[in-house]
């Protein structure tokens, strides 16, 4: 199997920060053609002897938090068709937003395993403030992580690589 993990979610939740952490120092393969907006990055990572590819989606709206239904559909469609496991990232600092709900509505089409990753849980207190995201109704469990300091990412990867 190809062992592909896709990271999806609205702008600024921390997708690229997690991507960079998961692919470590390995060089990401970017598919940016000149003059074309980069819409995804691929990188390679390893956890406990399992090798995988990570897709960072959502470069559609550079430097902007404006994102539209078409872009959400495009991002999620990519994840659903290409990935074996989907990480749906939300932001515990910002809390649950309407855009998160729009992503969840599209993600419900997927039969692939989905994990809700509650990012920016930089402290233990923050890691316990994730209950509101169960309302999204996708995924089975919520994994609080900090892409910035790495906390929680090991527990998440332990679960994810079980699919590989
Ligand atoms: P993306 O748009 O989803 O790819 O988000 P980015 O990875 O570009 O991150 C958006 C902002 O959130 C940046 O300023 C990051 O430094 C910040 N950020 C990402 N992960 C964390 C985290 O775990 N904790 C905190 N406090 N900030 C984070
Ligand atoms: Mg990004």
TrEMBL record:
UniProt KW keywords: GTP-binding, Nucleotide-binding, Repeat, Ribosome biogenesis
Signal peptide: none
Protein name in UniProt: GTPase Der
GO molecular function, one term: ribosome binding
Full protein: residues contained: 2 to 165 of 437
Ligand binding (GTP 1): 9-16, 56-60, 119-122
GO biological process: ribosome biogenesis
Coiled coil (UniProt feature): none
Keyword flag GTP-binding: yes
Complexes and interactors: Associates with the 50S ribosomal subunit.
Entry function: GTPase that plays an essential role in the late steps of ribosome biogenesis.
Gene name linked to the record: der
